[in-house]
Amino acid sequence: MLPEVNSPEIEREEDSQSLRTYAPIPAGTDVAMVRYLTRHRDRTVALLGEIDETLELLRRTLNASQPKYTGMIGIIWTHRPDRFNNGIYPAVVRWSCHRKSGSFDLHWKYKILNLRNLPRMAKSSKNFAAGHAQTVEALKRVQKLMQQRSTLLNTWSNLSRTLTPMESSTSDLESLRATLKEHLPALPHYQQSLLYNRDY
């Protein structure tokens, strides 16, 4: 058997006529690139909508599977200024009922739950027994969708963290462009380059 040999990369020759001579300036003139970025934005929004619509129905399923007693698990929609530009997001909570001091009025409080082992948190004792199986199944689906939602939005958070320091360096790029333009006429083949280049 002949030994396996890695074949060298073959250099491809292309007709220079197929090349684009100039960069897509100003920004946004590359229609194909803008369409590519817009498509992924639209896909994200659409997928987020599908997840949230399903989570909302699962919220109703949890409410219908458990009695309204202390210990029931539900979903709330909330927001925080430090998360996703104050956008609304879901949280899984456990409700508890308290009576206000000196009053017969009931007051409901909630505690946000960690998604880990979420189905195991469903109560099965006494009044919760009848809908326990449905609650566990709903929580399995909630757990999966919440993880998918987090992964989706974390991708955009990472993009935001990447863009911020790069945007802060745009003044350096502007200075560099000014320097490059200033020194262009002094380069040895500048006059010849004017035949196939342009100034912006």
Write a compact overview of the structure shown.
The chain is of the alpha+beta class. The chain has helices at 31-65, 132-168, 170-183, 190-193; strands at residues 73-79, 88-99, 106-112.
Provide structural commentary.
The chain has 200 residues and is of the alpha+beta class. The protein has a domain of 119 residues. It has 4 helices and 3 strands. Strand 1 and strand 2 form a beta hairpin. Helix 1 packs antiparallel against helix 2. The model has no long low-confidence stretch (mean pLDDT 87).
Features:
200 residues; alpha+beta; 4 helices; elongated
Which H/E pattern describes the elements? Answer: HEEEHHH
Number of helical elements: 4
**What value does the average pLDDT take?**
87
Helix proportion range: 40-55%
Main-sheet strand order equals: 1-2-3
Number of DSSP E strands: 3
Alpha-carbon Rg, integer? 29 Å
| Biggest sheet overview | 3 strands, antiparallel
Question: How much of the sequence is in beta strands?
Answer: 5-15%
Taking pLDDT < 50 over at least 5 consecutive residues as the criterion, the unreliable ranges are none
What structural category characterises the helix and strand content?
alpha+beta
